[in-house]
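pinging the channel bc i need a second pair of eyes. not urgent but kinda urgent?? the chain im working w is below, pasted from the shared doc
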Amino acid sequence: MFDTQHRYGHTGKKMITLTHDGREQIQQFADAHGMTFSATIESLALIGMKADLTALLIPLLREVVDKAMQRNFNRIAKLSLIGAAEAAMAHDLATMLLLQLIRQEALANPHDFEEVMQVSHDPADDLDAQMRALYNEARQLAHTRQQRLLKTPLADLVARLAGLDEAPTEAEEEMNYE
């Protein structure tokens, strides 16, 4: 909860009486602006008394920003953790696939598998050029998928990563290697 002492200094309680309509309007204003009832009533009273708006707006803006950060902190932290978890999983999967490929080549070519694993940068080497082209195509496909993923609404991403939404995305459907 927001500490009122940081807003305007020391605060004090004051008993006031408001009409039901007035109280409801003040509460609606407070809710709409993410403010406490007390901060709203004080701000509106000071504005009505033509107080210096600059001095008044700074604490109000600070309170609104603080509340927005408090509301969204868990969301930001969760997104960061999801990103880190996905990156770790992708790294582990890529490592497993690479080790399996190396094992297959080592078993198939025990004496020269290190040479077999090399892919030349020489465009004259047709097979290696085809391999690099296939790699670049797969990389472009992954980049396209990443761009679509970044445009996906947050709620859909969280549901998908939590396993609640099992439907493949368009980019995943494109990556169907048959």
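so The CA atoms of residues 32 and 172 lie 40 Å apart. and The two ends are 55 Å apart (CA to CA). — does that match what u expected or am i reading it wrong
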